[in-house]
Amino acid sequence: MDTINNDFTNNVIDTASLPKFEEAVLTTLHPDYKKIMYFNVGIVYLILAIAIGAVCYFNEQVHPYIVPAVIVYVLLLIITIVFVNLSFKNRGYAFRAHDVIYKNGVLATTTTIIPYNRVQHVALHEGILSRKFGLAAIEVFTAGGDSSDVKIAGIEKEQAESIKQLLVGKILKQSTPNEE
Amino acid sequence: MKSDFSKPQRQSLVGVVVMFADTLRGVIKGLWPLLIVWIFRLKDYDKFSVIAGAVAIIVLVAVIAYLKYLNFTFFLDEKNQEFVIRHGILNKSRLAIPLDKIQQVNINQSLIQRIINVHALEVDTAGSSKKEVSIRAINHDLALLLKERLLENEYETNDDFTSEEGEVKVKTRSTEKEHPFIQISLLTLFKTGITSNYTRSFALLFAFVITTYQYIEDFIEAAGYEEDTLDSYFDPELLLRFITFIIVGILFLTLFINLGRTIIRYFDFKITRKQNSLLLSHGLLSTKSTIIRPEKVQLLVIGRNFFQKKLGIQDIRISQAFNQSTNKKQLQSAIEIPGCDDNERDTLLKFLLNKIPEKGVALKPSIRKLIFMIIKSLVIPIGVFFFISYLSPEMRDYIIFLPIYIIFVGLIVFFSFRNYRLFVNNDFIIKKGGAWDVDTQILAPHKIQGISLTQYFWHKSSDIGIVTLHTAGGNLVFGLTNYTKLKELTNYWLYQVETTDKNWM
């Protein structure tokens, strides 16, 4: 791997002066991605509403429970919308010189950091809806299994492409000395 | 004893027997619903046609087995550096594996193979190969030779790698051909057998006893007795004796099962050093052999409990890098070396990790972890118990078990909190944890694939969090602990990973 210096030095590392990942400025997702998130929530709740409606229509016995059901439905919808908002707000990513940082989560905030020299491959996803908005998702795979893979959605298509190129370039640069 | 692998060759002729067994098993597996129907209606057919049918099937299977044997050939293509297998009776297929893609070659032996004295050779490749290549019947010398040839390539690259690292010592040693390393005696296996896996076996037996008890109760009920009669049958003294008998029985059975399992699985456990790798072989009924290569080792776990500590033995579990497609299966089957003494442990660690890991600065868990554990395993279950006994008064009889539960779980919580530590130094990350079985996870920083830091929003004010170190052989999780310190460590680990020239695999 090419990250080492050929002139060998062995100074004491001052851990306090190391670059700090927590100081990296995280880029937030594209505002249009929030619309996609709302749309997805909308679809789920629409299907739910149709199902409830159908039950009510065909089964007369449940009629007394319609009012509580509607209240629960509305409450759930409100909670979900709050969560979507928080989830959108809490997501952020940064591509540093040697690693990628991704932060997400509502109740628990998780920051995952993957060094480029451990990336196995990169995938670019485009959903139907995200294509309409010109957005794409980048997925970074490592050998660490599902739990360490990172999927960053809601990046502008062009930017995503260039990020992918950057990552692929980094991987190639890492692996060529190995291959030989 | 140079054998020529460059020409296509068949398996050992006796291998037809293995083929026969395999095919027969396949037929039975495929046709079992039909077979069951036949067996039940056996009376309806006359004897002659039954025997004729059975003979026909066996002859057919034998012919297929023989054809399979005839059509299965393998050879080593020196020019293209490929291992080629041809098989198939009607649909012929040719499978070529580039030698540098071969990750592991295992030589195993099942019961049938043991009887006719042949071995199976399995080739494990990198990438998304679900269908493993396996030669079902090959004699031992040939298998070893073929294995060596298949892995020659690997060893060359390994030597390059180690010489790059300047590990001259390892290289000079690797020129020695074979080197008996560690041998686990029957006595050690005996010690391991009676001291390990208490929890698992106990849970198993407990489940078994409960189902039997319920079954008996159902049976008595179904037989038309009154519900109370079961209780009135036993006078208290008899009941007490019965319970003691069952508990003692469970304890003995647990010991016995563990002992049997350990000995069957790990009988004649041998570790030999072959060039730069370790070759493990063990098993009473079927021999299993595995190769461990130091660069492939991701996570190492040393497990020992109180008894094992007193006896001076410990288990070592090794997770190697796994393919993404098969990670779950591989994770469970971490390689286990039972009953190493301290010397053997140190030799192994030195070989696998280049040096004996020392514990660095200790990181203690936050007191909130203790509180959380107490709430999770004491407050909530007790609360549920009181709630249930409030609803149904019969449950109140069980209140005598409550102090036992509190003492038992309290001790577990206390010890697992006291043992929970993360030691970090330049070369190793060591996590210790567990109440009875104390596990020590050892991880070299350059094996890290990614780092996750997790913090629940109610943890923010007290500055605590959880760290997960992802490796290709599983995760190492530590928390709750000081978040600022974790961030500092994360930066340090990232620095180590990003500046290292060491191969993680």
Characterise this structure.
The complex is a heterodimer of chains A (180) and B (505). Chain A contains 4 helices and 6 strands; from the N terminus they run ααββββαββα. Chain A is α+β, with helices and mostly antiparallel strands. Chain A folds into 2 domains: 32-87; 92-179, PH-domain like (Roll). In chain A, strand 2 and strand 3 form a beta hairpin. In chain A, helix 1 (31-58) packs antiparallel against helix 2 (66-90). The N and C termini of chain A lie close together (11 Å). In chain A, 21% of the residues are buried. Residues 1-5 of chain A have low confidence and may be disordered. Chain B has a 7-stranded antiparallel beta sheet with strand order 13-12-11-17-16-15-14. Chain B starts with 14 loop residues before the first helix and ends in a 6-residue tail after the last helix. The interface between A and B is medium-sized, with 36 and 34 residues.
Q: Which helices and strands appear, and what pairs or packs with what?
A:
The complex is a heterodimer of chains A (180) and B (505).
Chain A: H1 31-58, H2 66-90, E1 92-95, E2 99-104, E3 108-115, E4 119-125, H3 128-132, E5 135-142, E6 150-156, H4 157-179
Antiparallel strand pairs in A: 1-2, 2-3, 4-5, 5-6
Chain B: H1 15-40, H2 47-71, E1 73-77, E2 82-87, E3 93-98, E4 102-108, H3 111-115, E5 119-125, E6 133-138, H4 140-165, H5 168-174, E7 178-184, H6 186-195, H7 198-222, H8 227-233, H9 236-266, E8 269-274, E9 277-282, E10 288-292, E11 297-304, H10 306-311, E12 313-320, H11 327-332, E13 335-341, H12 342-353, E14 361-363, H13 367-391, H14 401-419, E15 421-424, E16 429-433, E17 438-443, E18 448-456, E19 464-471, E20 474-482, H15 483-499
Antiparallel strand pairs in B: 1-2, 2-3, 4-5, 5-6, 7-8, 8-9, 9-10, 11-12, 11-17, 12-13, 14-15, 15-16, 16-17, 18-19, 19-20
Helix pairs in contact in B: 1-2, 6-9, 7-9, 13-14
Pfam family, one (chain A): bPH_2
Organism (chain A): Flavobacterium beibuense F44-8
Domain YdbS-like PH (chain A): 89-166
